[in-house]
Specification:
This protein is of the alpha+beta class. It contains four helices and eight strands. Strands 1, 2, 3, 4, 5, 6, 7 and 8 form an eight-stranded antiparallel beta sheet that branches. The N and C termini lie far apart (38 Å). The chain binds a DNA duplex through strand 3, strand 4 and helix 4.
DNA sequence: TGCCCGATTAACT
DNA sequence: GTTAATCGGGCAA
């Protein structure tokens, strides 16, 4: 049986949690898959929503680890984060892509795309597939409807610069499963 | 109150 | 390769 991820798992450096989550399984209401891509954010760095202090929107980031921070992106999409580190660090990982493994018929219906690779290949896409919205902001990750399981076995993790940001764009805080077909964008292979 | 723009996506040329 | 869609947060005034 795979191990369930607890608050203790998330209460560590965001740069330990992020690679450890590659290959982990995320389910919401029984629908989801393996995490194959994510990014780290920390309040000391200007690309983070928590940079500049606590506001109504980012309040969950300033709370304890192990909770979901969900925000609206570009007025259209939803993005899912997991709060990490000791309370007050205002650090989180943005879940960017899943390899779909559970509830594929439901996700296909919600997404309406012809190729299963596009079901969860992007932060907005996976939220649509799992039907995660602002209503899930602040929910605990160790209780239903969330289920998180540690990966079983070894994985090869690759890293690179984060996507879609203009500030601190040089930091290599994007993590992915090497060779996955379900990434939102490929990682630049190192020579 | 008004203005700018973003941790995106899909549909274009 | 480019761009429209769409809207709330954050900040200036």
């Amino acid at each position: 049986m795979p191990r369930r991820l607890t608050r203790a798992f998330f209460s560590r450096s965001v740069h330990k949690v992020a690679p450890d989550l590659i290959g982990a399984t995320l389910l919401f209401d029984g629908v989801g898959g393996r995490i194959v891509e994510l990014e780290a954010y920390h309040h000391t760095e200007p690309a983070a929503h928590s940079f500049g202090g606590r506001t109504e929107r980012n309040a969950v980031m300033f709370g304890p680890a192990g909770y979901a921070y969900v925000y609206r992106s570009y007025g259209i999409h939803w993005c899912l984060n997991f709060v990490c580190e000791p309370e007050g660090s205002a650090a989180a990982v943005l879940i960017r892509a899943l390899e779909p493994t559970a509830g594929l018929p439901v996700m296909r219906r919600r997404r309406g795309v012809p190729d299963d690779r596009l079901l969860c290949a992007g932060p907005g896409r996976l939220c649509e597939a799992l039907r995660i919205t602002h209503g899930q902001n602040g929910l605990a990750l160790d209780k239903p409807p969330f289920e998180l399981f540690a990966r079983s076995g070894q994985v090869q993790v690759v890293e690179g610069p984060r996507i879609g940001i203009t500030k601190a764009a040089d930091l290599p805080w994007r993590y992915g499963l090497k060779g996955s077909r379900f990434l939102s964008k490929p990682f630049k292979s190192r020579a």
